[in-house]
Amino acid sequence: MGTKGCAGDPASAGSRPSGADVAEGLCQELLDSTFFQENWERKPFHFCAAEKGCSANRLPDALFADDLAAAVGRAEGINLKMFRSNETSDLETPWHSYLAGFSMVINQADRHLKVLFDLCKGLGDRHFHHVFAVVYLTPPGSQAVRVHTDDQDVILLQVWGSKHWTVYNAPTHLPYTEEMLGKEQAVPGNLIGPKELDFTIRPHDVLYIPRGYLHEAATSTEASLHITLTVPTSDYCWGVQMVKQLNSELRSGQLLTPDSQSLCQASLAECLAGEAPKDELDGKIQDMLSRFLSNLSAEAVLKGFESRMAKTNLGQDQQFSQLSEGSGNVLISRNRRVRLMYGVTCFCEEGSQEAIFGRADGRCMRMEITPSSSKLIRSLTDTPQWVRDLPCSDSFERLCILHILLDAGVIQVFLRGPEESLEMPQR
């Protein structure tokens, strides 16, 4: 998978670019004055690495399957969601869900992975005030969500595998959050216009989609990982910021006389029932808004925006410090060794959808598996083997299979190398 064969396998961990390096490449190769004049919040854009080189998106050289598995362990129950055709998974673990064809979505993944944190901070400081990252890992032959629009501008970096994208028109120019389409119900056919972009994205490619453009994507025969760098631009617009400024001044009491304060706290019920004098209410509202407008200025709105962005970025920093610590419940990586647990035997035919594990005491466990898992499971013995050497065409699928077997208690993971004393974690 990807440009190096197996999905997410590093050629050399020591040669990885940092998140700051990835941000610099993106800024130098793509986010230039031409992009902001011609594309930003105007029209989508596909940067094809096969034609223009790999420097704009260095993330495939920086983010690997082990990193993603660690992020899953940290994000599970907080920011991790599993989707297939707009439906969520009810399977017991994300490993089971992924092998069953569900896409993994890690919201605010920059809080869990340093390379993404540094990438987002670099872009935020340079261009966008605040950026956060979302991980989308889609198994073969899948679609996570149907055609829809977003209220945010997104820059997608393809990491491994491929995915077919179709970007259509923008039914609403620069929509607010409540104007998004396709989230709760399917987009009406009459709103879907001609295709703006129709292509297959590959590692090192970049796709930019302005907010409001309809889009959808699906995998074919290989899994796909892309990272969406999200700029919450609907929250940056003047309309939203002026409302936030009004809310801020109301909460601070700057606009409130005793009469207007009682108005803000009162229920609408009396007015809806026709019991409150509307002329009196109109006067109080007009007085309050006059006070607001008399103090309203571009400088005041911008100052309020900068203050809110500072709090948002501080929260991002604090959450990264908290959530990136440790490795969650993930024990398996490509540089560890595994074997069948002592006394466990395995029978599994190649291409089978079932594996049978026997124990020394005569107990037997039947496990449903995917046909693509059978080759790996058949290769397991009572001799320790490096995870990276176990047969599987997709590095992340390999980790999913092994985590499921570890949870089932049929394999042992060695946390130290062969030259050191071995440890056998109990799960």
Notable characteristics:
Outer Surface Protein A, domain 3; disordered C terminus; 17 strands; Jelly Rolls; single chain; disordered N terminus; 427 residues; alpha+beta; 13 helices; eight-stranded antiparallel β-sheet
Strand order of the largest sheet: 1-9-6-11-5-4-2-3
The CATH architecture assignment of the largest domain turns out to be Sandwich
Secondary structure: helix percent: 25-40%
- Beta-strand portion reads 15-25%
Q: What would the principal axes of the Cα set say about the shape?
A: elongated
User: What is the CATH domain class of the largest domain?
Assistant: Mainly Beta
Counted up, domains total 3
Query: Which spans have pLDDT < 50 for at least 5 consecutive residues?
Result: 1-6, 420-427
Mean pLDDT: 88
Description:
With 427 residues, this protein is α+β, with helices and mostly antiparallel strands. It folds into three domains: 13-235, Sandwich (Jelly Rolls); 238-296, no CATH class; 337-414, Outer Surface Protein A, domain 3 (Alpha-Beta Complex), CATH 3.90.930. It has helices at residues 19-29, 33-38, 49-52, 65-75, 94-99, 114-128, 238-252, 258-265, 269-272, 278-295, 298-323, 374-379, 395-407; strands spanning 45-47, 80-84, 87-88, 103-106, 132-138, 153-161, 163-167, 197-201, 206-209, 215-218, 224-231, 337-340, 345-347, 354-358, 364-368, 385-386, 411-414. Strands 1-9-6-11-5-4-2-3 form an eight-stranded antiparallel beta sheet. A three-stranded antiparallel beta sheet has the order 8-7-10, with no helix packed on it. A three-stranded antiparallel beta sheet has the order 16-12-17, with helices on one face. Helix 1 runs parallel beside helix 6, helix 4 (65-75) packs across helix 13 and helix 7 crosses helix 11. The longest helix is centred in the C-terminal third of the chain and has 26 residues, at 298-323. The model is unreliable at 1-6 and 420-427 (pLDDT under 50).
